[in-house]
Specification:
Layout lengths: L7 H33 L16 H23 L2 H4 L4 H14 L6 H19 L10 H8 L2 H25 L5 H29 L8 H27 L2 H23 L8 H23 L12 H24 L4 H21 L1
Length: 360
């Protein structure tokens, strides 16, 4: 595992990332439950621009749960590379899918279960081949990286595309296409991860006794983080209100992971010193996750029936079923009780005697 040998920070970041996935996966369920309660009461829905969810305690419980998960995620980014922490978000897909089938009655078919397994396997491969980011130990070095022309171009593209999605694509396709609002959350989320990394460095320097509070960059990153999180919460609520949780969560994971990996590769040069096998492993793991998410999303409404099996399996199943029926019939003939037939015979004899008595 790249850059992980003997570093306690790696295991701390790994544990925090796992806890973060559990809390974030549960937060989707609590938020969805709150939004459904509001819909049953006839309140203005979030998908229609309403904000009645701010008075729903279940929604606030989900927000608190997400806050705990994001805090753990925040700390994980401080201790470990972003390309290591972000793929573990696939576990939140599994948590959300299992809980939604239990508490929201959103059935998860066999394709969805296979998709969850593939997502976990792909995440494991990505963790094994995780790259090592360039060391950023001070706000000054973070400021130099933020001034990099490649990151500036990336940030401008993210902002322009998000504005187009919000003001052009949102009113037209937001209620029919799950990608519109989720793309906004994912694109803005990639910038929020960069802010989190910078604030983590600022907190380290603050605890070390350095005058970080006098540095303007820390405050700028804090304001940008608040704005990014606010935008993410708003459009994630709209996506959850319109579409099923089992759809929003995996799609959000794939797009968010892609955006964060791209941003981290540009900002922290994580891929610059990777060897070929780690590059292939990381790409293969991510493509495995995408395949799993595709199974979870594309076949969510398709029931798995015996008619979907190949013809030779259907024939084998029919032959096996026929053999079972013949075996049951044979056993029923062998073990047929004699008492009912005797009762029937005695009953017919009594009926005959009664008829003869009437004739006499």
């Amino acid at each position: 595992m790249a850059g992980a040998g003997g570093r306690p920070g790696f295991y701390v970041g790994l544990g925090l990332a796992l806890a973060s996935s559990a809390f974030i996966g549960g937060s989707f369920i609590l938020k969805k439950k709150g939004l459904l309660r509001l819909a049953r009461r006839g309140r203005a829905r979030a998908g229609q621009g309403g904000h009645a969810y701010l008075r729903e305690w279940l929604w606030w419980a989900g927000l608190l749960c997400m806050g705990v998960g994001e805090a753990a995620n925040f700390a994980a980014y401080v201790f470990a590379p972003a390309t290591l922490v972000t793929p573990l978000g696939a576990l939140s897909v599994l948590v959300s899918a299992v809980l939604s089938s239990t508490f929201l009655n959103e059935q998860l078919n066999v394709h969805g279960k296979i998709g969850c397994i593939l997502s976990i396997l792909g995440s494991t491969v990505m963790v094994i081949h995780a790259p090592q980011e360039e060391e950023v130990s001070s706000l000054e070095s973070m400021a130099e990286k933020l001034k990099d022309p490649g990151f500036i171009v990336f940030a401008v593209c993210v902002l322009v595309s998000s504005l187009l999605l919000i003001f052009v694509a949102g009113p037209r396709y937001g209620r029919s296409n799950v990608l519109v609002y989720v793309l906004v959350c994912s694109a803005i989320g990639s910038l929020s991860v960069s802010c989190v990394k910078g604030l983590g460095i600022a907190l380290k320097e603050l605890f070390a006794g350095k005058p970080v509070l006098k540095e303007p960059l820390g405050w700028v990153l804090l304001v940008c983080l608040v704005i990014c999180i606010s935008v993410q919460i708003n459009y994630l609520n709209k996506a959850l209100d319109i579409f099923n949780t089992s759809v929003v969560t995996p799609v959000y994971y794939v797009l968010f992971t892609t955006a964060v990996m791209t941003c981290s590769a540009i900002l922290f040069k994580e891929w610059q010193h990777m060897v070929l096998d780690n590059i292939i492993g990381t790409i293969s793991g991510f493509l495995t996750i995408v395949c799993g998410i595709f199974l979870l999303h594309a076949f969510r409404d398709m029931p798995f029936t015996p008619d979907l099996l190949p013809l030779f399996l259907q024939q084998s199943r029919a032959d096996l079923h026929a053999s079972w029926r013949s075996t049951d019939r044979h056993q029923s003939c062998q073990h047929r009780p004699l008492l009912p037939s005797e009762d029937k015979g005695s009953q017919s004899a009594e009926e005959e005697e009664e008829e003869e008595g009437e004739d006499v």
